Amino acid sequence: MGRGFVAQVAGIPGMEVVVAADMDPKRAMSAFRETGRDPIEGLSGTPERPAATDDALGLVRSPTVDVVVEATGVTEIGARVAYEAIQEGKHMVMLNAETDVTVGAVLGRMAESAGVVYTGSAGDEPGAIMELYDFARSLGFEVVVAGKGKNNPLDVSATPESLAEEAGRKKMNPKMLASFVDGTKTMVEMASVANAVGFSVDVPNMHGPAETVPKKLGEVFSLEEEGGILSGYGTVDYVRGVAPGVFVIVRSGEGAVRETMQYLGMGEGPNHVLYRPYHLTSLETPISVARAAIYGEPTIVSRPVPSAEVVAVAKRDLVPGEKLGGIGSADYYGGVYNVAEAEEMLPLGLAAGARVTRPIQKGSVVPRSGVEMAGDSFVVDLRRLQDAALRQ
């Protein structure tokens, strides 16, 4: 993600990446060299000579930086970097939806108080869905469902080890691939959308029906009494098919609007599908950078009170004394619930580093009371602050 962002920005007048942080600064330097730049080590980057460092917080504090983009997918790092950026008066663009669904509500409040923008990214699926949602609402449509396609089979037992060969072929981090295949990434992305627009999930972990024809989604995601699968509207969901597309389903009333939608090939109604067949991930992130810096606008941000929670579900039997790995590990995968149902469940973004205190069976949601949180975790502390603010 970071490498693609650096390459795309190189062709955009008026925007420059002046410093990049990576655990291995050589990777950041390589990304700059691919764009024809001659980078230096450290934090004193310029548009002509960008810098590469392993000091992420030093990057955040650099006076040459206006906007920080976070692309690690690690909640502990994402929370710390976002918090520090806001404290430093920098706009914050998150390509780290895992952190956003864990502490995005409190980070959004902090950013608003500080007079800066905290936002998810254009090009990431939540941002792409939000653009469709905003477009539909601007036209006066009622949006009843928001969703995305999943482009690989769902296997909740997937591990970095079982996907090592495929990850090698695709030049991907095995943990990242595992988080896609086991459904965690889909749960995270749709929770992010739900929290931004105030939607719920119709059933835990969503329905996830199979469908490859976008125009049919309006029928699939209609109410049960209308022949569909939903018990109610105002929900997020995903489809095994139509990937890598995103969609929203809108409703029209009888009369001129519905007749026009029919004439335009948008179906008979009352449900119509607005579908975008692509999202360009980090290549679109510069749009969010520009919106934040120039207009002070977010692309997508959680409401102050989240409506969905992504929780940890055991991939295997967990034994007391074990320390849980990170997202995409062999220990757990993500499931999404409405916030009211998830109060006693362990949020996905707090699981890494937690110590199991009682047996937890494979396939069971990990309870908060079944683990001891990492004592030195910044994201855990920030989540406690968010929870306390919501109780007020």
Automatic annotation (TrEMBL):
CDD domains: SAF_DH_OX_like. It comes from the Bacteria. Residues 309-372 form the SAF domain. It holds the Pfam family DRL_cat. Residues 33-53 are annotated as: Disordered. This is NAD(P)-dependent oxidoreductase. It comes from Rubrobacter marinus.
